[in-house]
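Onboarding guide, step 5: your first structure request.
Type a short instruction followed by the sequence, for example:

Predict the 3D structure of this protein.
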Amino acid sequence: MALTIQEQFGQIDIYVFDQILRGNITPGMRVLDAGCGYGRNLVHLLRERCEVFALDLDSNGVEHVRQLSASLGTGLPSDNFQVGRIERMPFPDAFADVVICNSVLHFARDEEHFSSMLTELWRVLRPGGMLFCRLGSRIGMEFERVPGGRFVIGDGSVWFLVDEEMLMEYTEKMNSILVDPLKTTIVQDYRCMTTWVLRKRL
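The system replies with structure tokens like these:
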């Protein structure tokens, strides 16, 4: 019996889905979801037999991903899915073909924390691999600034928000290649979310 789209893809982020459609994430790749939550972006990748690894601070989320993997009969070891911090990941250098970091980096305490997380994401990515980030930004909206390079977004939450200049400076600093131009979605009177996709040079 054919799967429904919901069963095949779960609650996948539309911009992760875009990378799959374009062939940038394919079956058999080693994919690390850094800040996986409850695995919303992993249903299809687990079904397609990607070698999935995942990390999150939330132990309940990590356990949910373990159970999801087991329920899909992937055969992946349970210790592929670990509780931990992005700025200190337990994975070796040049480990993954694809690193996904979706809706996490804007929780940085300040730019130093942001930079340390980004450094780790880049460290575990192999040469030629792709880093997918979707993060809060202030590209297209103005927000009240508070200490630490953080801003108050529409619901009163405080996020670390990047701008285009900052992202392009990091892109150059890491000697990376932009897979796509920066793409920003503005949610009316609430927030901006930017998709930043980089390839690590060989």
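Each response can be followed by summary notes, for example: The first helix runs from residue 5 to 9.
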